[in-house]
Design a protein that fits this description.
With 441 residues, the chain is an alpha/beta fold. 45% of the residues lie in helices and 13% in strands.
């Protein structure tokens, strides 16, 4: 059977064979008797193996990463070639993919860009390496307190840092300034000021509601539960009095105050955005991508700045510091990386202050509240303005955390949805949530 060789094996064999031919051709003939005497042998010249590293990113970030690498001098300065590869579509498939690879002692990539949920899974399973030894002594000086608090909660495990974030964004409070101005209504600043707005804006006969959200189960409802419970001053996974208060408030908005469209429980973010652009929503919580949707060419006939104004979220009983929370993506290194030394060099390059700024200039996928990044960002850009407003106002809290986040959020969604659709009582919803979460411990 014919043996096939990898590129590395071929280069090594070819190099050795070539070296042997050169030695044979350049060695003078010697008597047979002398051949028995030991002679010093020259070593074949070492074959230089090209240095390479692979980074896995989501499809939306592929071109940004390629542009960043093309714009900067990482390969020129280090001699390390970088290949940008695509992650799988979901966190579940990515977790399965990496688990199989690590168990086999290898990895399909060396560096990965990953989200909160996978950070928890990867770090606890030991699939990624600690990064603290790679960080400069003054590294965290470039981060605001909110990003540091977030990183300590979501990017560390047992005191070790496993991910350095580059994308940091939060839900904003969007509102129809034109509608508020026409009615002479001030923007609400508290939960209590939100409740009367159902009477002002909601017209069920026309399908218009004061507010709407994407609350379908499957990591949508959980986001809203965490947002409201944080405003109440707590963590929903504790199933404490703050979580109870949050559920009561949501139920009131849906059925008593008529502020929040109950059909939100069957909607995702795309449907929510479509209703807003169809002039059926006065205000809503939504992630920043909605700003790009509203400004897209498809919506140019509808768009105006006063239709997508952003204000600070109405503060709940927990105070303004927990009015919203950020989620993030960041870089980490796979423990079984075939190119570990090169992976460390690439990560140090990507997280440096200078390259973080250059990355932001390439694309807002790399926008965060890092001091250097936010200072260098275009101050007239709508997204930069909102991020700076929220950061300066001190309204960004830490995203509520659970060590088994994915399993825990499913429990909250199931039990909360049953209550919010009038299938079970509030007390039964809370009891089921507590009992099922206790089984995760």
């Amino acid at each position: 059977m014919k043996k096939t060789y990898s590129r590395r094996e071929f280069l090594q064999l070819a190099g050795a064979a070539a070296a042997g031919s050169v030695l044979a051709a350049s060695t003078p003939a010697i008597p047979l008797a002398a051949k028995a005497a030991p002679t010093a042998r020259k070593k074949a010249p070492a074959v230089l193996t090209p240095r390479k590293v692979r980074i896995a990113v989501g499809g939306w970030a592929e071109q940004n990463m390629k542009d960043l690498l093309a714009k900067t001098n990482f390969t020129k300065d280090t001699g390390i070639e970088v290949e940008v590869v695509l992650r799988t579509d979901t966190k579940e498939t990515e977790l399965t993919r990496l688990a199989s690879a690590v168990q086999a002692g290898t990895s399909p990539y060396d560096v990965i860009d990953f989200e909160d949920e996978l950070t928890t899974s990867f770090s606890q399973a030991g699939y990624v390496i600690g990064l603290d030894d790679l960080l400069p002594a003054d590294f965290w000086d470039d981060f605001p307190p909110e990003m540091i608090a977030y990183s300590k909660t979501w990017s560390t495990y047992k005191g070790e840092t496993f991910r350095i974030i580059h994308n940091w964004e939060m839900p904003y409070w969007w509102y129809r300034k034109d509608w508020f101005d026409a009615r002479g209504i001030p923007v609400p600043t508290t939960w209590e000021e939100v409740k009367p707005l159902g009477k002002v804006f909601t017209d069920e006969s026309k399908g218009v509601w004061a507010s709407e959200d994407g609350l379908i189960k499957g990591a949508f409802l959980n986001v809203y539960l965490a947002w409201i419970t944080l405003q109440a001053g707590g963590n929903p996974f504790d199933v404490g009095p703050e979580y109870k208060m949050a559920l009561e408030y949501i139920y009131d908005l849906m059925y008593t105050s008529k502020v929040l469209n109950p059909a939100s429980l069957q909607k995702d973010y795309n449907q929510q955005n479509a209703d807003y652009i169809a002039d059926k929503v006065a205000f809503m919580r939504q992630w920043p991508f909605f700003g790009d949707v509203a400004r897209s060419p498809d919506n140019k006939d509808w768009f105006s700045e006063d239709k997508v104004a952003v204000a600070l979220p109405p503060a709940g009983p927990g105070g303004k510091a927990g009015s919203t929370y950020a989620a993030a993506w960041g870089f980490g290194i796979v423990k079984t990386s075939p190119n570990l030394a090169e992976a460390k060099e690439l990560l140090k390059f990507l997280i440096s202050k200078e390259i973080a700024v250059e990355a932001m200039k390439v694309g807002f996928w790399f926008l965060s509240a890092r001091k250097s990044v936010l200072a260098a960002a275009p101050q007239d850009n709508w997204l930069v303005k909102q991020l700076k407003m929220y950061t300066d106002a001190g309204v960004i809290g830490v995203r509520p955390f659970h060590p088994r986040f994915v399993e825990a959020l499913t429990i909250l969604e199931d039990t909360a949805a049953a209550y919010l659709t009038n299938q079970i009582s509030l007390d039964e919803s809370l009891k089921q949530a507590k009992d099922r979460l206790a089984q995760l411990a």
